[in-house]
Amino acid sequence: KAGVTQTPRYLIKTRGQQVTLSCSPISGHRSVSWYQQTPGQGLQFLFEYFSETQRNKGNFPGRFSGRQFSNSRSEMNVSTLELGDSALYLCASSLETGIPPLHFGNGTRLTVT
Amino acid sequence: DAKTTQPPSMDCAEGRAANLPCNHSTISGNEYVYWYRQIHSQGPQYIIHGLKNNETNEMASLIITEDRKSSTLILPHATLRDTAVYYCIVRVARGSQGNLIFGKGTKLSVKP
Known about the structure:
heterodimer; A: seven-stranded mixed beta sheet; four-stranded antiparallel beta sheet; B: mainly beta; globular
């Protein structure tokens, strides 16, 4: 069974631009969560989706948004990029919301210059 | 969710057992212990989880003390590829994934 797939693997953007990251969960998994990982803050929860609905949101500004499609694939968008948004963005899927374990993708490395 | 305490780093010789401790003295009765690891430049990988009883799978064994206030992850024959940051997390079986708090983890270095 294929794992969680995230695209692109690497991305370089400049301040003020926006970016969209994509995540395909494991087949049959209906819940998708997004995390931001930085050296200073570690892994921080962004949001969680289940059945195309956002179920929970972390403490991030409104520039960070996401959505989930009917096939469970998910995208997250960051608008008006800031230097501090440089991070590894990780997507994780599970069978249903709130039921671990989470299965993570290898992330998208975003660099903002 | 309860908080966990792990040593920041550990070394282990290749081929020997790696024993990674975790303290979770405030764990609640309905909280499970989960272990993940993250190899450099990859996403976290689920290893094992348990509630009360010791658990074993193809990757590792999990030993939970009788009072459930601490646990040990055992990699029976560590290899160089087991070098990673290991995270111990306690949380309820159901609940938003937003409560999955990874902490700093233990950086395990397996040496030849």
